[in-house]
Write a structure and sequence with these properties.
Length: about 120
Amino acid sequence: MIGRRIGRRGLLGAAATTAVVVGTASAVSGGMQAKSAAQAQQASEAAAFEHQQQQARIDAAAQQAVAAQAAYPPVPAPVAAAAPAADDLMAQLERLGTLHTQGILSDEEFAAAKAKILA
């Protein structure tokens, strides 16, 4: 037993053990990071796919709404056009009344023109 100690490793043995421990820790850590990155990628792809499916459903619903709307005839405009005609009618009657009052129209002419406007 020349120069050899029992129970203690030398500096070289301690360095080798440390290198093995560090290498193993790095490998495990790298593997975990790779697995985590793969899971994140899968989750991102699943979310993108779900978004595409949702957009397709929205587009299909919009197309159905347009088709359903095209199937019905257009709604006629409200009867607001009658108001200007009523205003015009009143203006004509007032003008006739003014002409009758001024003596330009006789009673018979006034009555005939009034009946024609109201008919």
